Amino acid sequence: MAKGIGIRYSMKGLRALEAERSESGLSITRIAAAPIHEDAGSFLARHGFEADTPVAVSLGPGDFLSVYMIREESMDDKDMESHLKWEVQQKMISEQFEYNYDFVAGNSAAFMFAGRKALINSLKNLFGPVLTDVEPVALLNGCEGAGEIDLETHRGVSLLISAESEGISSIILLDGNPAAVESFPIQLSDYTEKMPGLNFDGSEKNDSENSRRFVKYIGGSVNRLTSRGEDKKKPTPQRLILAGGGVYLDDLAEQMERKIGISTSISNPFRSLKVDFAVEKSPLESFGAAFTTCFGLALRAMEG
């Protein structure tokens, strides 16, 4: 049996999920969320997360830099890595040695991510010897693990987007293979550490103004990554999967479907046919999309 804990941590809040893989399959065994009002270690202990379970923590929008390029026959992986490292360094406003780099080469494209060493070290100080992963990759792993990306039924171009109060993360898939990625912070002035349905005091509210802002931000990302923008050679998405706490803002999924005119669904690993949701009754079980990246991180933690 293997276990892993996935943590989405930011200055606005903390969400954690524990997953377990056994002979009987994959189960989600624990979930928790809170604003940042207590020590992270105390929070995990209070909710029953075991200290020796492997942990993966996400770098969210604004916590890392990313670049990508479509795979070219004239360039091998080493050439693309060198080019992307140069490109991501052009975005840096501090010394290059202050970053950790991660290069990922796929069938359709190659990617380079760079995270500040100081931030990664601070997460290790909070949570111990943890793995770190970027939010778009955690989003992809969560959707795949929940069976929401299935090549037998979902070939073509899919668009995955996580909408959070800190920012937007998007990833394009061509027949299940990553082809483009984007992540950027946003400013919603009347948000503190709370999201609708995740505000920890039992109250819920619709928020039409911030919902409209999310639609604008997400629409901009869709235009930059797909043929809906100025570059008609970019992929044309056939379906959109939305995740993140922003999903619960005033019918965001319905608004996006109307805006971009493609089939739009809400991610929910808690209701997956491939995953057993073995958590005792929790007020958070209605907000599965807010834990998709946590689920992807937990799967990453299991891998070591």
What does this structure look like?
With 304 residues, the protein is of the alpha/beta class. The chain has one domain (2-63, 116-303): Nucleotidyltransferase, domain 5. Helix content is 27%, strand content 32%. It has 7 helices and 14 strands. It has helices at residues 40-46, 77-89, 117-127, 135-145, 208-225, 252-260, 292-303, and strands at residues 2-10, 13-22, 25-34, 55-59, 64-70, 99-105, 109-116, 131-134, 157-164, 167-174, 177-185, 239-243, 263-266, 275-277. Strands 8-4-1-2-3-14 form a 6-stranded mixed beta sheet, with helices on both faces. Helix 4 crosses helix 7 and helix 5 crosses helix 6. The longest helix has 18 residues, at 208-225. It is globular, with a radius of gyration of 18 Å. The protein starts with a strand and ends with a helix.
User: Biggest sheet: strands side by side, in what order?
Assistant: 8-4-1-2-3-14
Biggest sheet character = 6 strands, mixed
Euclidean distance between termini CA atoms: 14 Å
Number of strands: 14
* CATH domain topology: Nucleotidyltransferase, domain 5
**Helix fraction by DSSP (H/I, runs of at least 4):** 25-40%
Oligomeric state: single chain
Instruction: Give the count of helical stretches.
Output: 7
Chain-averaged pLDDT: 88
**Any idea what the radius of gyration is?**
18 Å
The CATH class assignment is Alpha Beta
Low-confidence stretches: 200-205
Strand-residue fraction? 25-35%
User: How many structurally independent domains?
Assistant: 1
Q: What class do helices, strands and sheet pairing give?
A: alpha/beta
Described by the principal axes of the CA atoms, the overall outline is globular
According to CATH, the homologous superfamily is: ATPase, nucleotide binding domain
CATH architecture: 2-Layer Sandwich
**Order of helical and strand elements:** EEEHEEHEEHEHEEEHEHEEH
